[in-house]
Write a structure and sequence with these properties.
Layout lengths: L10 E4 L2 E5 L2 H8 L5 E6 L7 E3 L3 E3 L5 H13 L1 H13 L4 H19 E11 L4 H12 L4 E8 L14 E8 L11 E5 L14 E2 L4 E6 L3 E3 L19 H11 L5 E4 L6 H8 L3 E6 L2 H11 L5 E4 L4
Length: about 300
């Protein structure tokens, strides 16, 4: 597989997990065994064409490093390269094509790391979700697709020229559909007019809102973003709420399983995994993210530092 130029940096062991500082491709290739991961949650750059100050740059271009990655990718997945070449013809700057090269190399590595019972949740938005699903269909196979989950939220700002953009997408794929573990969760389904139905054999409940039944969780999730006054808030620009990650982790892992977040950012996945009794691995190449993760996870017991050669 394609070898990143930047070697894995020092790793920090915290409680039930390990935090790596370095390029996630190199870390996955050199530090993590094949078929050792139960669940991957990947919240990568979105190809938003935005610069997030000192945190990270989500702008892409077709440069020499991309060309090198494309050549390596062609050896393993020429079909993906055909898709990328089409995208290069459709745009001038090559930003989507460059982004897909970067993502494809990492998704190939993630597939190698997953156990046959494992799952991937790829977090993205409307800018690239459709392209990424094509790539995932090629790497994992269309038969391994399980769900397109919509995370709907409220936040400030709305356009007067289009509908407000207030959702993200989680693409849920199995390593092997026939072996994939899944633990269904329940949600409240309120009755019409909030009155009891009194159907025979149907359990009904009542809360402050009204009467409801409990149904299996649907694929549209209404979960609040991390607000400015939230106790969770770390200051990281793309931080996700713990409630979102807890739902993912509960659905596709059991206690003692190993969770991997290759772009761990503010450490939400790691904190949620620790809280739910899972082992975890986090990777990020941003010093600010590593600092936030260390501060956030040091609230848990036992911190052991181990140095690896750069």
């Amino acid at each position: 597989m394609f070898n990143s130029k930047s070697s894995p940096q020092p790793s920090t062991f915290i409680g039930a997990g390990v935090l790596y500082y370095g390029d996630n491709l190199a870390v996955m290739q050199e530090q993590i065994d094949a078929a050792s991961i139960d669940l991957v949650y990947l919240d990568p750059p979105f190809n938003s064409r935005r610069h997030y100050g000192t945190d990270f740059d989500d702008r892409w271009s077709w440069d020499n490093e991309t060309k090198e990655g494309f050549e390596i990718l062609f050896k393993f997945q020429p079909l993906i390269c055909e898709v990328i070449q089409i995208m290069r013809k459709l745009e001038r700057r090559g930003c989507i094509a460059a982004y897909l090269v970067w993502m494809s190399l990492r998704l190939l590595e993630i597939k190698r790391l997953l156990k046959s019972t494992g799952s991937l949740y790829l977090h993205c938005d409307e800018s690239s979700a459709h392209y990424l699903r094509t790539v995932l269909d090629i790497i994992f196979g269309r038969a391994q697709f399980k769900n397109e989950i919509i995370w709907a939220f409220k936040s400030g700002g709305a356009s007067s020229k289009s509908f407000a953009h207030k959702h993200n997408t989680l693409l849920f794929y199995a390593a092997d559909q026939s072996l994939c573990r899944f633990y269904s969760q329940k949600q409240k389904s309120y009755n019409r007019e909030m009155k009891p139905y009194r159907f025979q054999g149907v359990a009904e409940f009542r809360d402050d809102v009204g009467w409801f039944t409990e149904v299996n969780l649907r694929d549209v999730w209404f979960i609040d973003m991390v607000g400015r006054t939230s106790a969770e808030r770390t200051g990281y620009p793309t931080q996700k709420p713990e409630a979102l990650l807890e739902r993912v982790i509960k659905a596709s892992s059991a206690k003692g399983d190993t969770i991997l977040d290759p772009c761990c950012g503010s450490g939400t996945t790691l904190a949620a995994a620790q809280h739910l009794g899972r082992k975890w691995m986090g990777i990020d190449n941003n010093p600010a993210a590593i600092s936030i993760c260390l501060k956030r996870l040091n609230n848990y017991n036992q911190t052991i530092l181990k140095r690896l050669s750069a």
